[in-house]
Design brief:
Length: 79
């Protein structure tokens, strides 16, 4: 079991966040509305794969094939 971690959008991701997620995390953060309080990311692990979820519901994860995927928490992951 791996414990998760939290950090504020716009800050440097903690060392626990896999490098393969960094590019997409930054892309999501660029799309946040300016002038609003920065939401926070939560990193967890599911079946050994990292899952970073922003308080806004955006999820950045790695799929079974190893590709980094960005989705929203109301989207069906298996569609």
């Amino acid at each position: 079991m791996q414990l998760g971690t939290r950090w504020t959008a716009g800050d440097q991701p903690p060392a626990a966040v896999p490098q393969e997620l960094h590019e997409q995390l930054t892309a999501v953060e660029r799309d946040l509305p300016p002038g609003t309080p920065a939401p926070r990311w939560t990193l967890t692990w599911l079946e050994g794969r990292p899952v970073a979820e922003l308080d806004t519901g955006v999820i950045v994860t790695v799929d079974r094939s190893g590709a980094v995927v960005v989705r929203h928490d109301d989207e069906d992951e298996f569609a």
